[in-house]
Design goal:
50% helix; 14 helices; Rossmann fold; Dehydroquinate synthase-like, alpha domain; 2 domains; two-stranded antiparallel ribbon; 6-stranded parallel sheet; globular; alpha/beta
């Protein structure tokens, strides 16, 4: 038996933020990043809608990219101090992910990371949760996953439970009008990876297939125009990344995410998550396409994009080349060395990186199995 999971409400389109003015409650805490939402006025807009609804409002800001356990602990303490009945995450995927975990420790201050898989606290005893994404890539607003960083060990790890699904997800295209090009590129290809991995995952279901296929088409047809400043395309990207989020929330991920998680924070030069996914996606397509059944799945995506090839294997290769072409047009490096990682540092850390990838929970859903030596070889091929 499988359950198809979505937010209770998904509010989309122009002025979607205004739904905040209809909430019932006494106090809200808004969580956000360092300054973007404040500078662009969206923090004030969000605050004003909540005040119109009759709520007091407090703000916890400064959530960094790849949120750390320390930041989450500070945020949870802030929530315990303020005692809100609504928690609103306003920002990118890092803000939304961090806030999900803060919410856990607000509801149950004695919760333990080590036991959450088997003993997850009961949420919504104190507060409900709203996610408002300001980037178009992570899909965190429609998933029950959060990824956090243990900075001391240089690893990322997921926290997952159906209770973490937001009560309301708000997709207002105004929030993504001013995204910088690098963010459009990295988060857009992050979304592409979500859709593609969900489409070939061993956990895929017909419902996730539909969302994944439509997301791949929308992303492919709009990402370059969005990158060049087309606001209608940027709006479509915002919706497509959420479709990709629904796809992987129900179909799950695979080897690309296992590899990207393992390289994100381990090098002297940080590798953004979306960039890591983008670089490893063509390599993973070619690896997985060794399986004829999976090659046929990639061929279906290729046909949907009007790519050409006589056989499923040729179409799968055409799809991998399509991803490489998008990466190149978006200014995404084709290798870690091109990005600026030294051979010495890579060789020093490849054993650790491969071990982390092998232990990543996403790997268990990949359609083609791999051993440690294979992982070292596959990951080294990107250098």
């Amino acid at each position: 038996m499988k359950r198809l999971l979505y937010p209770a409400q998904l509010v989309i389109g122009e002025d979607a933020l205004s739904v905040l003015g209809t909430l019932k409650g006494k106090k809200a805490v808004i969580t956000t990043g360092s300054s973007s939402m404040r500078k662009q006025g969206f923090l004030d807009i969000t605050t004003n809608y909540l005040k119109e609804a009759g709520m007091d409002v407090a703000v916890f800001d400064g959530i960094e990219s790849d949120p750390t356990l320390e930041t989450i602990a500070k945020g949870a303490a802030f929530l315990q101090q303020e005692e809100p009945d609504w928690i609103i995450a306003l920002g990118g995927g890092s803000t939304i992910d961090a806030t999900k975990v803060m919410w856990i420790f607000y509801e149950e201050p004695n919760a333990k990371y080590e036991t959450m898989r088997t003993d997850f606290p009961t949420l919504r005893q104190k507060a409900h949760f709203i996610a408002i994404p300001s980037t178009s890539g992570t899909g965190s607003e429609v998933t029950f996953f959060a990824v956090v960083t243990n900075a001391e060990k240089h690893i990322k790890f997921p926290v997952a439970n159906p209770q973490l699904m937001p009560d309301i997800a708000i997709l207002d295209p105004a929030l993504v009008k001013n995204l910088p090009q690098t963010q459009i590129a990295n988060t857009g290809m992050d979304a592409m990876t979500h859709a593609v991995e969900a489409y070939v995952s061993i956990q895929r279901i017909p419902f996730s297939d539909g969302y994944a296929m439509e997301a791949v088409k929308l992303l492919s047809n709009n990402i370059l125009a969005s990158y060049k400043g087309d606001l209608k395309a940027r709006e479509q990207m915002h919706y497509a990344q959420s479709m990709a989020g629904i796809a992987f929330n129900n179909g799950l991920l695979g080897i690309v995410h296992a590899m990207a998680h393992s390289i994100g924070t381990i090098f002297t030069k940080h590798v953004p998550h979306g960039m890591g996914n983008a670089m490893y996606l063509p390599i993973a397509i070619r690896f997985n396409a060794q399986d004829e059944v999976i090659a046929a799945r990639y061929a279906e995506l290729a046909r949907a994009l009007d790519l050409t090839g006589e056989t499923d294997a040729e179409l799968a290769e055409a799809f991998a080349v399509h991803i490489e072409s998008l990466n190149k047009s978006l200014g995404i490096p084709s290798s870690l060395s091109e990005y600026g990682i030294s051979k010495e540092e890579f060789d020093e850390k490849i054993a650790t990186i491969a071990t982390h990838a092998m232990n990543d929970s996403s790997l268990r859903n990949n359609p083609v199995k791999i051993d440690y030596d294979g992982m070292v070889k596959l990951m080294s091929s990107l250098f």
